[in-house]
Amino acid sequence: MYKYDEYDQQMVDARVAEFADQVKRRLAGEITEDQFKPLRLMNGLYLQLHAYMLRVAVPYGTLDSRQMRMLAHIARKYDRDYGHFTTRQNIQYNWIKLEDAPAILADLASVEMHAIQTSGNCIRNISSDQWAGAAADELTDPRPWAELLRQWSSFHPEFSYLPRKFKIAVIAAEEDRAAMRLHDIGIQIVEKDGGHGAAFYVGGGMGRTPMIAPLIKDFVPLDDLLSYTEACLRVYNRYGRRDNIYKARIKILIHELGVDEYRRQVEDEFAHVKSLGIDPPKAEFDRIAAQFAMQPLDASAPDVIDRTDPDFAVWVDQNVAAHKVSGHAIVNISLKPLGGIPGDASSAQIDLMADLAERYSHDELRVTHAQNIVLPHVRKADLFPIWQALDAADLATPNLDLISDIIACPGLDYCSLANARSIPVAQKIAQRFADPLRQRDLGELKLKISGCINACGHHHAGHIGILGVDRKGTENYQLLLGGSGAEDVSLGTITGPGFDEDGIVDAIERVTDKYLSERTDGERFVDTYRRVGMAPFKEAIYG
Amino acid sequence: MVEHLQADGEEPCVTLDAFLEQSNATAVRLESDEDARALIPFLDRLKLIEVAFPKFRDGRGYSSGRILREAGFTGELRAQGDVLVDQIGYLKRCGFDSFASEKDLNPADVEAAWSRWPEHYQGAADGAVPIWKLRHG
């Protein structure tokens, strides 16, 4: 994976010094909270209901054991001994003191990490496929392109005061594991005539006006990747709406201009930007790509898994995925134990996952947008001891992509924007469907919960989505069906009137019962929904 | 060192509309929602372009600055308005070379904020050599 050279380190160190100075000026009262806010936000520091929250960047979700251990250290030393992995492949800490923030950033910088641009109206952390470099179905590893974009977007002088935040994802497989088309820019590395290029989807997003990004250009030569991205951003920075925060995302600009007009403006801008010489030479891409290239894995490693232990076999079937090299596998560690908080991990659990990565997974871990952790390069022969270690730490719940593998935002328990709690609802649903056989019978079922209309919990993209709203001072939960953040991307539809906290759990059970009675062989929940439509489900829910 | 220009004795800026109607003026003010490219035919005769930053969050002026420099403008490019210490580095990179802040900026803070960044990842309008070029010579 990518290692900093002296330039990268110097940038991060400068940022630590800068932020220490900004915090000092704020604590001394030299700058107001209003002036400090955009500065702290660009360093990932939010003011929440009870304390500051610090969001640490995990670029394209990749980290090594040393970095993972630092995340545990921060949880222990500066927070309440746990961290929360997020839907943007980052980690956030919910109980941070402002005066500790500079020291935390310095600790992060010592392991080539930072919190740069994890919030604010700038280009956020670049996200990617959590199985990059390991997936059997990928065209190439997308992360070198993501790293190129990371460097280009870091402290970008023109795009640090955009109309609104800006999220970019890069993938290189047909199977979309990164919700690529629900990003402001989704880039898919594709092949044409034997060469690779980038398909640009621009203007996707969730929030209160969810939109699936339309295709703006099917094949951008990779030598033009940064110029083309810069052109997309410049048109947005100049013409994106700034009069209304809820209409400021690029999706609204493209919706109002029309896809063809936006594309025309980008093409005009690109013709100019390409002449500026901002694209690095191939040698720079090669320098980055070489660092992601691994020692070749041993393709003659044993391919057989001893499935004697039935619990182990269940976990293998549910949480282990195919690796591109024979004899190897991708381990998905669920951070969704029964009754737990989706995405939370204690410092001890984080340390354990770091140890396993160092010992068994070529020192690599990934954070997924579904708030789980991945050990990407594991020998099949090592799966059993890995499972034993995970099981002992409550990290071996065999529920990947099942109904209890819930994405949930922090909700009203933490977040000052939330209208309703998300975590207790996630816990009640997991309890209701606690029987593992029942979960497996329901099959792939992506359930996502947001505690407000901003949709951090991706409810629009859930096969089943839940949106918490405030109705006359009480928490109310709307139910959505039929969304997807994958390659079959779609937006969920609201079923009808909302429910209270227990009512929503009952409603979901009526929906899954209806699915079981309607499904045909091999149909996932979302397939059945798409075939039979909303009406039978509505009938089942509301009678 | 950053200059803090005084308005005394210099030609006042005219609005973009006024400039486009009678273009004898050599100083023009561009509001944040105005198209910098409207000035491109006249850059040779302009001495000063003042770009408005009505709120520090309004980042349109950064694009205006770069567009003007990319089109070859060599006169004074001034950022006027809600310009804060921590934005001056980005403004300089986008081609601005003078700053008329409504805030009382401490020159030492401005200098410290700017000099903290020895190199930059990306090319912009300040002529700085991007890090990728330093890596590859």
UniProtKB/TrEMBL annotation, chain A:
<dbReference type="InterPro" id="IPR036136">
    <property type="entry name" value="Nit/Sulf_reduc_fer-like_dom_sf"/>
</dbReference>
<feature type="domain" description="Nitrite/sulphite reductase 4Fe-4S">
    <location>
        <begin position="404"/>
        <end position="541"/>
    </location>
</feature>
<dbReference type="GO" id="GO:0051539">
    <property type="term" value="F:4 iron, 4 sulfur cluster binding"/>
</dbReference>
<keyword id="KW-0560">Oxidoreductase</keyword>
<dbReference type="InterPro" id="IPR045854">
    <property type="entry name" value="NO2/SO3_Rdtase_4Fe4S_sf"/>
</dbReference>
<dbReference type="Pfam" id="PF01077">
    <property type="entry name" value="NIR_SIR"/>
</dbReference>
<protein>
    <submittedName>
        <fullName>Sulfite reductase</fullName>
    </submittedName>
</protein>
<feature type="domain" description="Nitrite/Sulfite reductase ferredoxin-like">
    <location>
        <begin position="52"/>
        <end position="110"/>
    </location>
</feature>
<dbReference type="GO" id="GO:0020037">
    <property type="term" value="F:heme binding"/>
</dbReference>
<dbReference type="InterPro" id="IPR051329">
    <property type="entry name" value="NIR_SIR_4Fe-4S"/>
</dbReference>
<feature type="domain" description="Nitrite/Sulfite reductase ferredoxin-like">
    <location>
        <begin position="341"/>
        <end position="393"/>
    </location>
</feature>
<keyword id="KW-0004">4Fe-4S</keyword>
<keyword id="KW-0408">Iron</keyword>
<keyword id="KW-0479">Metal-binding</keyword>
<dbReference type="GO" id="GO:0046872">
    <property type="term" value="F:metal ion binding"/>
</dbReference>
<dbReference type="InterPro" id="IPR005117">
    <property type="entry name" value="NiRdtase/SiRdtase_haem-b_fer"/>
</dbReference>
<keyword id="KW-0349">Heme</keyword>
<dbReference type="Pfam" id="PF03460">
    <property type="entry name" value="NIR_SIR_ferr"/>
</dbReference>
<dbReference type="InterPro" id="IPR006067">
    <property type="entry name" value="NO2/SO3_Rdtase_4Fe4S_dom"/>
</dbReference>
<feature type="domain" description="Nitrite/sulphite reductase 4Fe-4S">
    <location>
        <begin position="119"/>
        <end position="272"/>
    </location>
</feature>
<dbReference type="GO" id="GO:0016491">
    <property type="term" value="F:oxidoreductase activity"/>
</dbReference>
<keyword id="KW-0411">Iron-sulfur</keyword>
Automatic annotation (TrEMBL), chain B:
<dbReference type="Pfam" id="PF06073">
    <property type="entry name" value="DUF934"/>
</dbReference>
<dbReference type="InterPro" id="IPR008318">
    <property type="entry name" value="UCP030820"/>
</dbReference>
<protein>
    <submittedName>
        <fullName>Oxidoreductase</fullName>
    </submittedName>
</protein>
